[in-house]
Amino acid sequence: MTQKPKPLSTIQVNGPIPAAQARSIIEESLREAILDGRLPCGTALRQQELADLFGVSRMPVREALRQLEAQSLLNVVQHKGAVVAPLINNDAVETYALRSVLESFALRLSIPLLDASDLALGAQYIEQLETETDHAQIAKLNRLFHMSLYHKAPNSRLLDLIEHELNEEERFLRFHLSSMGLGKLTQDDHRALLEAARAKDIDKAIALLELHLEKACITMRRYLEQQSNR
After folding, report:
1. Which of 209, 186, 13 lies closest to 101, judged by CA?
2. A Pfam family for this UniProt protein (predicted)?
């Protein structure tokens, strides 16, 4: 009987890792593997196994796992240690309500500081979303577009909270985008939001963002109800 490969075997490590970059490289490698499903929900990540894989001590591994836990990509479970977190849970609707508050505040702070390069980057993400068909890339581009409008907000804690929520949404959309009916249809919302930001019309941009998130929340609520009725 053929044994399935262990999840960690899907992570490629290219040569020795510089000590100064170990934590960030480990964090990014694990983050990508979680987001694209190579490390499925429930996978236990042992510090020593990771240290052996990356050829480092356990200290940068421990720090990387803490960062991923802070992003809600990992849970710490008794007797198992760090475990890849579930894709989504039933508080998703409440999470969207929280996102609306946080992202509206970040947008209000960020818009006055956005320059031409920020707006051009947002437009680039929209163009890519218009033609992209891979659900993993669509989910990633969606996150990047939103952060391109928020990232100038001079409140790092606020941005950390928002990116945390966007990370969760990205993971979920990678696996359920087609069944939820999301994707290309959202680009009209994104274009309108970008144009309001370009015009420095903060109130209009916030109203558009709230409507956009409310529509996504309704779609997710319906999807979760369908799943619970199966």
Report:
1. 209
2. FCD
Helices of type H across 9-155: 22-35, 47-54, 58-70, 92-110, 116-131, 135-150
Q: Tokens 């894989």 — which residue?
A: 53
Tens of pLDDT, residue by residue over 15-60, are 788 888 999 999 999 988 887 778 888 899 999 999 999 999 999 9
The distance between the two most distant Cα atoms of the chain, rounded to a whole number of Å, is 63
- The full set of domain ranges for the chain reads 7-84, 92-228
Token digits of residue 8: 């960690």
Spatial separation of the C-alpha atoms in residues 30 and 32, rounded to whole Å: 5
Angle among Cα 107, 123, 203 to the nearest 5 degrees reads 30
- Residue that the structure tokens 């993971």 belong to: 171
Q: Indicate whether this model's pTM tops 0.85.
A: no
